[in-house]
Amino acid sequence: MNTELNRESLLKAYRMMRTIREFEERVHTDFATGEIPGFVHLYAGEEASATGVCMHLSGNDYIASTHRGHGHCIAKGVDPAGMMAEIWGKETGTCKGKGGSMHIADLSKGMLGANGIVGGGGPLICGTALAAKLRGDKTVGVCFFGDGASNQGTILEAMNLATVWNLPAIFVAENNGYAETTSPNYSVACENIADRAAAFGMPGVIVDGFDFFAVYEAAGEAVKRAREGGGPTLIEVKVSRYYGHFEGDQQKYRAEGEVQKLRNEKDCLMQFRRHVTADGDISAAELDAIDAEVLAMIDDSVVRAKADPKPGPEELLTDVYVSY
């Protein structure tokens, strides 16, 4: 067990991962009814990545997300009830029901937003990291992106700029193996995304995305390095999503039984439970209690979201421009 993580931190990590999982499972179920507007891209299966990274961040640090952003939001402290209302398109949502699943943001939590632009988070994080460097406040910026974004010029240019300016930035490539429907074997010239780090003069690390402790350790080193002025790091998290690229994706590109095998053999929550209960410091009953509490919270958030009002016509032109 990682000695840096005390009992309280381990329980916090488990609750965070379980909240992401139950949130996504419920959205998957409810989206099938046709009541949720817009597109939904689910993060289930990748919980250890967001949690392992964001456990090292404070409220003053920033993250930029992807279209698959629910897990990043929850791990950074965004209110799940507000997120659920946002997904249902209600005025009580985090963005007043006008952003939806792909555009949830909460600047008060350092969450710059989920992003429908593939690779759009790199320049944003360079901006926050440059501001942090100029202020000298030792905060960091984290850019999450997928294997599909690894070939985008925005990401490559952001990594280059981060090194040129020696910015406190961490780039986290969540390689789920398919981008939308295509393996990186067909679209990425090198074997590993992390191998590209050398071209930008930064360390590149590969971790097992189903292992919370592996992600936590790698992220801890990268965040510490960034805070101390050592510059950026690229972390490649090799993981897999349990659902399609989007809800409704038939996933014809995946082998039969592939997802169930991952759930049975590699699931990050299953591995975490096995790890922390092995020495008896944390009991299965304690984790079961967290499961029940999280499920009740998610159920309550859905009930509230369904009952909440939609934004009115008067909201149509609000929040379009920044007011100083």
Polypeptide structure, described:
- This protein has helices at residues 7-31, 47-54, 70-75, 80-87, 121-135, 153-164, 184-187, 212-227, 258-265, 268-277, 284-307, and strands spanning 62-64, 141-146, 169-175, 204-208, 233-238.
- The protein is of the alpha/beta class and 324 residues long.
- The protein has a single domain, classed as Thiamin diphosphate (ThDP)-binding fold, Pyr/PP domains (Rossmann fold, 3-Layer(aba) Sandwich), CATH 3.40.50.
- Strand 2, helix 6 and strand 3 (169-175) form a beta-alpha-beta unit.
- Helix 1 (7-31) crosses helix 2, helix 2 (47-54) runs parallel beside helix 8 (212-227) and helix 4 packs across helix 11 (284-307).
- The mean pLDDT is 94.
Descriptors for this entry?
324 residues, five-stranded parallel β-sheet, alpha/beta, Rossmann fold, single chain
Label the CATH architecture: 3-Layer(aba) Sandwich
Strand order of the largest sheet: 1-2-3-5-4
What separation lies between the terminal Cα atoms? 48 Å
Tally of discrete structural domains: 1
Largest sheet: 5 strands, parallel
- Helicity level, as a percent range? 40-55%
CATH class: Alpha Beta
Beta-strand content:
5-15%
Fold-level CATH name: Rossmann fold
What are the secondary-structure elements, in order, as H or E?
A: HHEHHHEHEHEHEHHH
What is the average of the pLDDT values? Answer: 94
Low-confidence stretches: none
Please describe the topology of this protein:
Layout: H1 7-31, H2 47-54, E1 62-64, H3 70-75, H4 80-87, H5 121-135, E2 141-146, H6 153-164, E3 169-175, H7 184-187, E4 204-208, H8 212-227, E5 233-238, H9 258-265, H10 268-277, H11 284-307
Parallel strand pairs: 1-2, 2-3, 3-5, 4-5
Helix pairs in contact: 1-2, 1-10, 1-11, 2-8, 4-11, 5-6
